[in-house]
# Entry
Amino acid sequence: MKPFWYAVSLLAGSLFYSSVVPAQQNAAGALLQQMEQASQSLNYEIAYINVSRLGIESLRYRHAVVDNKVYAQLLQMDGPRRETIQRDNEISYFEAGLTPFTLNGAYIVDSLPAVVNADFAKLAASYDFIAVSRTRIADQLCEVIRIVPRDGTRYSYIVWLDSETKLPLRADLLDRDGETLEQYRVVSFAVDEGVRNLMQGLKNASLPPALAVPAGEKVTLNWKAGWLPDGMQQVSQSRRAIPALSKPVESRLYSDGLFSFSINISPADGNSVAQQLRTGRRTVQTVVRNNMEITVIGELPPTTAKRIADSVDTGTSR
# Structure
C-alpha cells in the first residue's frame, strides 16, 4: 500500500503546485495593473534618483489629472536645468542652450523606467509576474514583484510598489546574470490635491510650438528577421538616406511594451566590420553578410542581439 499512497501524494502535490503558481501569477499581475493605474490616475509628486553605470541622476516628477487631462512635469535637479512638461498629448522639452520644442506623445518617457507606463495585461503573455516579499522603501511598506521574460532572452525587473497607493517606489533592471544594470529609487513622495492645484497652472501656460515631423514614406522592405523574442511586434519601418554615411539605411523598430530595439540594414563598404558594443541596458551588434551591414540596436542582452542579427534574411531591397 505504501507505493500507492506515495503515488497519490505526489499527484496531489503536483496538482496543488499547478494551482498555486497561476494564482501567484494572477495576484502579482493584478498588483502590477494597480500600479499602472495609480501611476496614470493619481495626483502625486516624487523625488527620485536614477543609478546606472553612467552615474547618478537626481530628478523630480509631478503628475496630475485635471479635467480628465494629464499634466506632468519632469525636472533634472542637478546641473544645467532640463525640464519636460506634458499637457494632455503634448510633450514639451526645455534645455539650456537649445530651442524648446513640442512633440506629440501619451506620456513622458525620459528618465522614467518603462514599467511605470507598461501594459501588464499585454505583457502577461510573455512574462511571469512573481510576488517575492514585503519590505520598506522611502519609509513605506512595499510589495516586491519580479517581472521575468519566460523565454529568458531579455532583461528582467524587480519592482517595489507602495502597499497603500500602489505607486512604484523602486525598480531594478537586472541582466540575465542577476546583476543590476539600472536602478530607479524614490527618495520622497506625496499624494494629495496640492499637486493637482499646482499643476493647474499648466492649463494656460505658453508652450513651444510643435516640431514639424516629416510624414513617413511608405516603403516595402524585402528583408525580415528570422527570429524575434516572444511577444516582440514590429512598430514601424523606414528607409532614409544618412548624409554622413553616403548610403541608404533601412530600419524596422520592434517592441514588446517593455523593451525595444531596431534592426538597421545598409550596403556594406570598406568600413563595415562585425562588432559588438554594450553600454548599460543598450547593445549595438553588427554583422556583415551578403554584402550587407546588419546592425541591431536596443535594450537587449548581447547574446539576444547577436541571435537576431544572425537570423536576418537580407533578401533584396526594392
Observations:
- The helical segments are 2-41, 120-123, 193-199, 302-311.
- Residues 87 and 205 are 9 Å apart (CA to CA).
- The two ends are 73 Å apart (CA to CA).
- The chain is about 20% helix and 45% strand.
